[in-house]
Amino acid sequence: MNQHVPLSDGDALAKRNTLVLAFAQALGGANPAIVISLGGIVGASLVADKTFATVPVSLLQLGIATGVIPAAILMRRLGRRGGYLIGTLIGAAGGSLAAAGATERLFWLFCLGTFTCGLYGSFVQSYRFAAADTASESFKPRAISWVMVGGIAAGVIGPQSVYWTRDLTPSAPFAASFLAQGCLALIAMLVVMRLRAPPVAAAAKTGGRPLGEIMRQPRFIASVTAALVAYGLMSFVMTAAPLAMVACGHSVGDAALGIQWHVLSMFGPSFFTGRLIARFGKEKITAIGLLLTALAAIVGLTGLSVAHFWGALVLLGLGWNFGFIGATALVTDCYRPEERVKVQAANDFLVFGSVAIASFSSGGLLNAGGWDSVNWLVFPPVAVALVLVAWQGLSRRAVPA
């Protein structure tokens, strides 16, 4: 009954759902934080050839890209809440498999676990869209932004889970940390049960336009390109930065602190990004995010001190926040209610497919061309995305009210 509350109530339902999803994001967002923190360390202990040590982390990203379409199909049939409940069970299974792989010292089983964690991540990534489902046009950017605020808590919950559980299984280092990740997924199940989303399956029966027609819209192309560039380049540079810092003689502690500031800059602005979008427009905030990403590369090219690396990582996080949230808000303009799930799935498949590619390629490109080459590669995709977003902004301005 409460799934049909009208939006004229001051977005009360949307605000309620947004808070639920922000809490779910805090728990589900700890999933990649744990895998990224430990995947390479555990992987290195399980294989003789250290070239493959980061494969478990890359498989997390591949799992996200692989899972977005099946997750969308589940949500079309079962609704948002039903799909998210299944997602949390997948997350618990992923943590258990990874823990078993670490315990039995089976690299393939550990990789299967991190890939399964990625499948769970494909459900978590759609929380931002779910927050917009019941929101009015004016509240959508803030709803998306509020959910992303949950990432700040996730950035604390994930590392703290590792800190408190890392020594619980001395014979299998960090296995308990992956069990903790599975427990967080089960706690998230209790949270998503409170979601009161509109009936996706019922809306889907009306069909809507073919996906190809929707994807050919210039606005869809611009928004997906911007999201792909913002997220893909963030992953590409972030993955390479700690390795580059250590190669330049900086300590592992300096590298870890740089990543911490990067994560805070990624999610911290979410407190006000939605309001900025409402005031200045989606295209402008997205463009600012892309420009900040380019500025991060410029800072990275100007020096190799700790300050240069940290400055580049902070700017990179800010660029991701404005660029990705702005692009997500742009995508919501591209579909009708009955089309939302399939369009969101297509968007995330393209975005996180690029993130997986960036994750697999970053280390190799760093080894081949050095830190400078990583930064120079930022500019061409940023330029393309900026042109497309600017074109959409000008086109919208040219349309008479």
UniProtKB/TrEMBL annotation:
Record's keyword annotation contains Iron-sulfur: no
Residue span(s) of domain Major facilitator superfamily (MFS) profile: 218-401
Keyword field: Membrane, Transmembrane, Transmembrane helix
Keyword S-adenosyl-L-methionine attached: no
SUPFAM superfamilies found in the cross-reference section: MFS general substrate transporter
Transmembrane feature ranges: 20-47, 53-75, 82-100, 106-123, 143-162, 174-195, 220-247, 259-278, 285-304, 310-335, 347-368, 374-394
Recorded superkingdom: Bacteria
Pfam families registered for this protein in UniProt: MFS_1 (PF07690)
Alphabetized GO MF terms: transmembrane transporter activity
PROSITE patterns: MFS
Protein name, as recorded: MFS transporter
Organism annotation: Bosea vaviloviae
